[in-house]
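2024-03-11 09:14:02 DEBUG pipeline.ingest accepted 1 chain
2024-03-11 09:14:02 DEBUG pipeline.ingest length=119
2024-03-11 09:14:03 DEBUG pipeline.predict start
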Amino acid sequence: MSEVRQRKVPKEKLSALPILGDQPKSEKEEKFLREICEYEFYNLEEPGTELRFPYGNTLNQTTFTMFHGEKYMLPRFVARHLESKGTPIWEWRPDGSGRMTKKMIGKKPRFRMGQSFSN
């Protein structure tokens, strides 16, 4: 099970984790991203296997262990981080000089976080 589920990590510790990637542009957006919601985790790349990953920086870090189909209480920025991970889709095209060039045409998502709206 997840470290979050096993040890019942306090919400204050989860919301105190640093936001990685794109930083919020306003205080309102930061408040929205730090809100803790219930998400159902889907491992689209390898269903049935666990995902273990560290999140944070050297001063404030938590290791998450997640299983396909399980529900977790997470801040929105952690869910956004997971959904941003993907495998690039490449296409080879001729460049006019007889050679082929590689161009990224998209990303195949690896994980999906479905937000649960239970009462």
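2024-03-11 09:14:41 DEBUG pipeline.report The beta strands are 36-43, 51-56, 61-66, 71-75, 86-94, 100-109, 111-115.
2024-03-11 09:14:41 DEBUG pipeline.predict end
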